[in-house]
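Second opinion, please. Please look over this fold, written as tokens:

===
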Amino acid sequence: MPKTSARLLSLLSLLQARRDWPGALLAERLDVSPRTVRRDVDRLRELGYPVVAMKGPDGGYRLDAGTELPPLLFDDEQAVALAVALQIATASGAGIEEAAARALNTVRQVLPARLRHRVDTLRVTAVDRPETRPGPQVDSGVLMAIGAAVHAREVLRFDYSPVTAPGPVRAEAEGEREGGRGVLPPPPRRVEPHHLVTWGRRWYLVAWDLDRGDWRTFRADRLAPRTPTGPRFTPRELPGGSVAAFVTARFRGTTDATGDGVGGWPCRGEVILGLPAAEVLRHTREGIVEELGPDRCRLVLGSWSWPGLVAAVGRFDADIEVIGPPELRSAFARLAARYAAAATDAPEAPYS
């Protein structure tokens, strides 16, 4: 590659790495004179890169946003990360599956042979859990509108349907129930949008509901933004300290968000298992495991319900000692009687 072309690529890579670059520092990094940097910047501008000159004692340059997308330059790790992310995007539920597949094909075609080989050997197939109904698809325009309001910290107004049926169908059904009289649609919701999150292949908006005076989560596929947005707001502090803790606690049915992976569950219990701690840890995604001996450990676990917690503990093939609380002990007794009755009443089965 000619020396000038190689230097242009190096300059472009530096400009993409940080927002502002003093001219003298660019000249030092490229081992050229400031005059050469100015000429190379002019060449980049001719190629369509919007490089802006900054005034000041030292002067400098910035790669600004343009009206078109010019050729981009990625290092090896960035190129591989982009290819993997595009493969996973096909199962995002954001309505961008086809665009992600086309973008992946474009990126792969321009990768050097050594990077193309790395990407091809790291083929990722995103598979969702089997469900009775396919996951809802969210219009990418809705996600962009929500994201823009979150970024600008502007009050978002939207129509929200608690059912998946279209609005007109729902209104007609309500009108029939009212003896043919039309029913006015509910007023739009007004919220301070804070985060756009994904959970279980669904998109949610975490926001402060201005009319209800409380934090709420809204399904993005049931949300129709209205324009224009409202006034700007100062973000409130999210309960739990982080959006991950808050959302996890809400989907567990409680507003308690702690960092131990247990406190957010409605039901929390403690037992001692006759198993090594290392073996229990391999099968426990959430909870606390404490080693008490070579074949004995303490397990603190949470669940939606006490029977659910008992079932989670019962999957370990080991002796169980219940520490507490009393509700957990009672749940063990109820399930023990239920299982014993099932074993006694069941007809003899030809299983070996």
Notes: The chain has twelve helices and twelve strands. Residues 326-345 form the longest helix (20 residues). The two ends are 73 Å apart (CA to CA).
